[in-house]
Structure formats: C-alpha cells, structure tokens
Design goal:
This protein is an alpha/beta fold. An eight-stranded parallel beta sheet has the order 3-10-9-8-7-6-5-4. Strands 1-2 form a two-stranded antiparallel ribbon. Helix 1 packs antiparallel against helix 16, helix 13 packs across helix 14 and helix 15 packs across helix 16. Strand 1 and strand 2 form a beta hairpin. Helices cover 45% and strands 10% of the residues. Bound molecules: flavin mononucleotide. The site of flavin mononucleotide has 26 residues, from helix 2, strand 10 and helix 16.
Length: 378
C-alpha cells in the first residue's frame, strides 16, 4: 500500500484484482449515469478559501456522530456484497473502521451475516435495513440487530423501486457467481481474489439464507429477493419500525426538502442526504446540490449526514462546510477492500483523514466544529 496516494489508486488496484462483474457492480451507476457524474462534478465545483498565517498547530478531526465520539466525521456506508469484493469483506471492513475509530454500517444485502460480524469484532456496529414485503422476516431481522447490540439502525428509503444498472445486466452479475466460460477465465486470472473468496465464511446473502422459510437454494432465493421490493412502503411504516427498534434511527436516502421536513417529525435522530451514490433515480440532483436547503430547513432538528460522491478529505470538508455533520463513504472504501482487504479499507480511511486535516490547515481551521461556509469561496 506504500505507493497508494489517493482513492483513485485504490480504485485502479481494485479493478485489476477483482473480477469485472464485481468491480463494475461497485463502480457504476444507474441508467445514463447522469447523477453518478453530477455527484462528482458538483463537489469539484466548490472552491476553498486559502487562508494564511493562522495557527493551525492544534488540528483535531474528532467529533460526535449520533452522540458517540468518533475519530473523524466519517462513516462507512452500507454496501451490499462486500464479501464478494474480498472474502469475509464485511468483517474486514468493520474491523478497519473500528480500528480507525469510526462507525461501520452493515448492509442487509451482505454476504457475512449480522451474527458473523458481531462474533468477529469488539464494538457495536450499525445495521442498514431494507424493508421487504415479508414483514415477519423484517421484524426478525431487526430483532437480530438488537440481539447483536447494533448501535444504530439505518433505514434506507430510496430503494422501493430498483434503478437499473445496465452494466450489471451486461455482466450477468449474480450472487453467488454463475459459472460461464468468460467468468471462469476472469476468475482464474484473479487467483488471490479467488482464494480469499473460497476461504471466506460465505458466498451468498448471509442475512437471508437459513432465515427464510422454504428458501433453501439459490434459485429460490433470487426469486424471493426480486419479489420482495415493497412498493407500498410509506411514512406510516416508520412507526411500525420504531415499535420494534428502540435505538437510534437514521433515514438514508433523503434528497428533497419536503421529505426532510417529514423525516424531522418521524422520530428519527438523523438523515443521510443521499442519492444512493447515483445508483437509483438517474436525473436526480447531486447530493451536494440538495444538501444546503435541507440543512437550512431541518438542520437544527436532526443530525444531517451526507453521502454520494465523496472520494477525498476535500470532499468531506465541502459537505461539512455546507452543513453536514459527517459523511458516509461507499465506493471509496469498497475500492480499498477490493484492492487490499482490511489494509485497503484502513488505507482509504487514512487517506481521507489526512486530506481532511491538510485541507483544514490550509483553510485556517483547527476543529470540525469550526468548519462552516466561511471556508468556501462564494
Ligand atoms: C456497490 C454498492 C452497494 C451498495 N449497497 C447498498 C446497500 O445494500 N444498502 C444501502 O442502503 N446503500 C447501498 N449503497 C449505497 C451506499 O450506501 C452509499 O449511499 C453510496 O455508496 C454513496 O456514494 P459513494 O459510493 O459515491 O460514496 C451501495 C453502494 C455501492 C457503491
């Protein structure tokens, strides 16, 4: 990892080390990828004020996230199928996050189960929930997160209908992988990846398999998943979730100020301003474009987190300057995982932390609390 200087280096390494179908699954966005590109383009438009001759010797990245002390304003976002980017990927990413002093969020669509992670790490992690039609199963999933002592529930609200990623269809992306000749050749050319996957605990959805009645083979599982997106899900269901989950609740995937206003009255402690990393509604505004109005409207009532497009400490600084309290990263650490397992995730977190502390110094700021729109050129 010595010559890795930025997240793009991890991305390049991920691309070389992991089969194309899984790299593309992480890297690409929905439809024409307009929103995927807008996330990056709009962040890069935001310029900093360079300030000089300010004592910046006491820079400190630590902050509170949902009332808990964190080493920096960063959270690992829920990312499905991490265990296909690297054997035991969810466990390794969680360990890297906890070693760095930041929260890790486990996706419902993980390869390792909630129990696998809980048995492999020392501290609580966050759990992300997709609500499916089978409410009995969802109730049991929340109860499993409670039993595993998860410290926050992140309810993803922007995936009632699934956006299409053309590349996944072209690549024949399936879990576990189907054995076509082109895939076999691709897998055979990635021996380190292959041996990691074969050594990993699981190769299919660990939170689902073994917990669904009558689903005991892969074909039945994929039919079940495809039939389970619940288009009836609505704000009243938050009350039902609240009646089961007693802890901190975060709604992830808010992009519109009217939804943010309703969210502020929903009993949730926080929201993530997010367009799912440009993987859902193509043509939606970038997340950073949506952020300031939402902060103005509900920032004093609940904790505002931000994601979609963050690839550097500079990007974290931009989102914080526009009112976010912390940022989630998805691809940035998924690239790290594919590139180098736990060390790669640790590298992604370290890079972003170092970039953030340098950016703070060059903007004349010492603490996270001091960051505001005064650091930006308007
Ligand atoms: C490969 C991949 C899988 C994802 N899986 C999930 C998921 O299971 N649940 C979820 O709420 N969000 C999921 N997301 C969205 C992320 O949580 C996050 O919103 C997004 O990655 C942020 O954008 P970024 O990748 O530009 O940082 C996924 C994102 C990626 C890239």
């Amino acid at each position: 990892m010595k010559h890795i200087t930025c997240i793009e280096d991890l991305r390049e390494l991920h691309k070389r080390r992991v089969p194309k179908a899984f790299f593309d699954y992480a890297d690409r966005g929905s439809y024409a990828e307009e929103t995927l590109r807008a996330n990056r383009d709009d962040l890069q438009q935001i310029k900093f004020r360079q300030r000089v001759l300010v004592d910046v010797s006491k820079r400190d990245l630590s902050t509170d996230i949902l009332g808990e002390r964190a080493a920096m304003p960063l959270v690992l976002a829920p990312v499905g199928l991490l265990g296909m980017q690297h054997g035991d990927g969810e466990i390794l990413a969680c360990r890297a996050a906890q070693a760095a002093g930041i929260p890790f969020t486990q996706s419902t669509m993980s390869i390792c189960s909630i129990e696998d992670i809980a048995a492999s790490v020392d501290k609580p992690f966050w759990f992300q929930l997709y609500v499916m039609k089978d409410r009995g199963f969802i109730k049991s999933l929340i109860e499993r997160a409670i039993a595993a002592k998860c410290s926050a529930l992140v309810l993803t609200v922007d995936l009632q209908v699934m956006g299409q990623r053309h590349q996944d269809i072209k690549n024949g992306m399936t879990v576990p992988p189907e054995w076509s000749l082109s895939k076999l050749l691709d897998f055979a050319s990635k021996p380190a990846w292959m041996s990691g996957i074969l050594r990993g605990k699981r190769r299919t959805f660990g939170n689902l398999v073994g917990h669904l009645k009558g689903i005991d083979d892969v074909a039945a599982l994929s039919v079940w998943i495809n039939s389970q997106f619940d288009t009836t899900l609505n704000w009243k269901d938050i009350d039902w979730i609240r009646s089961i989950w007693p802890g901190k609740l975060v709604l992830k995937g808010i992009l519109d100020v009217e939804d943010a206003e309703i969210a502020a009255k929903s009993g949730a402690q926080g929201i993530v301003v997010s367009n799912h990393g440009g993987r859902q509604l193509d043509g939606a505004p970038s997340s950073i474009e949506a952020l300031p109005e939402i902060v103005d409207e509900v920032g004093s009532q609940m904790e505002i987190m931000f994601d979609s497009g963050v690839r550097s400490g500079q990007d974290v600084m931009r989102a914080l300057a526009l009112g976010a309290k912390s940022c989630m990263i998805g691809r940035a650490y998924a690239y790290g995982l594919g590139a180098g397992g736990q060390a790669g995730v640790a590298k992604a977190i370290e890079l972003i932390g170092k970039e953030l502390t340098t950016t703070m110094g060059l903007c004349g700021v010492n603490t996270i609390a001091e960051i505001g729109d005064h650091v930006l050129v308007v």
